[in-house]
Amino acid sequence: MVARCNRIVPLFALACACAVATVYFAHPLLVTMGQDLGIAPAVLGAVVTTTQIGYGLGLFLLVPLGDLVNRRRLVTAQFALLAAALLTVGTASTLTVLLTGMAAVGLLAVVTQSLVAFAASLAEPARRGRVLGTVTSGVVSGILVARTVSGVVSDLAGWRAVYLAAAGVCALLAVTLHLALPDTAPNPLRYGQLLRSTVRMFACEPVLRARSALAVLVFAAFSVLWSSVTLPLSAMSLSHTAIGAFGLAGLAGALAASPAGRLHDRGLGQWTTGTALGLLVLSWVPLALTQRSLWALAVGAVLLDLAVQAVHVTNQSMIYAVRQDAGSRVIGGYMVFHSIGSGTGAIAATAAYSVGGWPGVCALGAAISLLALVVWAVHARVHANRVSSTDTVSPAPAPPV
């Protein structure tokens, strides 16, 4: 089983990239969609919002199913249904049909996290961090490449071609994964018990709570940058192509994922987290100079993305180790906090920019990043004290014979 996992890790990464990309295809296509379907500009934001709502529901309702049913059948079914949802979007003729299809795309694109949990369950413990790093590299690459691919395909063949082509890719992946992945044993739990146990785990396990808190903060910092950076760049009269090119700096995050996983496998998870969070705080220094130098933006973006993805991979490796018997629930629950952080950061960044401009955004990002470093330091000290006290407890004397 382990050898088979090693051979199919690239397939996991590719499938994750394709699935998560479907959530982001719409971002550069909104205006074109609106013109084609006669949608008012004020309503276009609902397309993205509906997709994100669907994704959030899927994280809680669908991803935990990996601990209940055969994982191979689950991901195969999700990809097949995702293909149908993409087909619905690509052939939509009204706003209602479009929003229904986009909600379904978001709901089913959480197959990305089902695959992450599946890959972790197949990996041997000594290589789990490396496997998760490779798969996460696929996720990051899918997010970054999605906007570029959708823009190019739309220019060549129209926005509908983006979704129709994606539907074909997902259908092909459904067949491929069905043939390549191993079967897993179902769990006797009922669905209601499964969801309740997810909530209980995060309420009772200190590591899950601490790492979820870090997820909220680091992805809030990530979202503070990428949801607002277009504002100062647009003020510099840069083209949409030039602005979009800065997003490629996020590829640094994909490069950081695998090394972070290997460091975790060597027992350096806490060190990796602390170092990455230090880089996250430091990244806001060059980012604050964006309006003076675009090179400063590039350097700051690379540092920020390296830090965020390193923390993300280490988080996933650590929380999975806590409850290996509930990997899908753990990963799905953790990603809910990821989404909360991303959404909160975007809203806060907009408010900060309206009040204090770009310096206000950078001050907010630096404050969130510093808070994340403090949260990690407190948890690391508490954990170290707990381990130390456990090690120094004298064994109970043997009972008299």
Automatic annotation (TrEMBL):
Domain (Major facilitator superfamily (MFS) profile) spans 1-401
Chief place of localization? membrane
Does Transmembrane show up as a keyword for this record? yes
Q: How does it sit in the membrane?
A: Multi-pass membrane protein
Q: Does the keyword DNA-binding apply?
A: no
Q: Which GO terms describe its cellular component?
A: plasma membrane
Q: Which Pfam families match?
A: MFS_1
Q: Which GO terms describe its molecular function?
A: transmembrane transporter activity
State the compartments where it is located: Cell membrane
Entry keywords, A to Z? Membrane, Transmembrane, Transmembrane helix
Segments spanning the bilayer are 7-27, 39-62, 74-92, 98-119, 131-149, 161-181, 210-229, 235-256, 268-287, 293-311, 331-352, 358-378
Q: Which domain of life is it from?
A: Bacteria
What is the designated name of this protein? Uncharacterized transporter ygaY
Recorded source organism is Kutzneria albida DSM 43870
Query: Which lineage?
Result: Bacteria, Bacillati, Actinomycetota, Actinomycetes, Pseudonocardiales
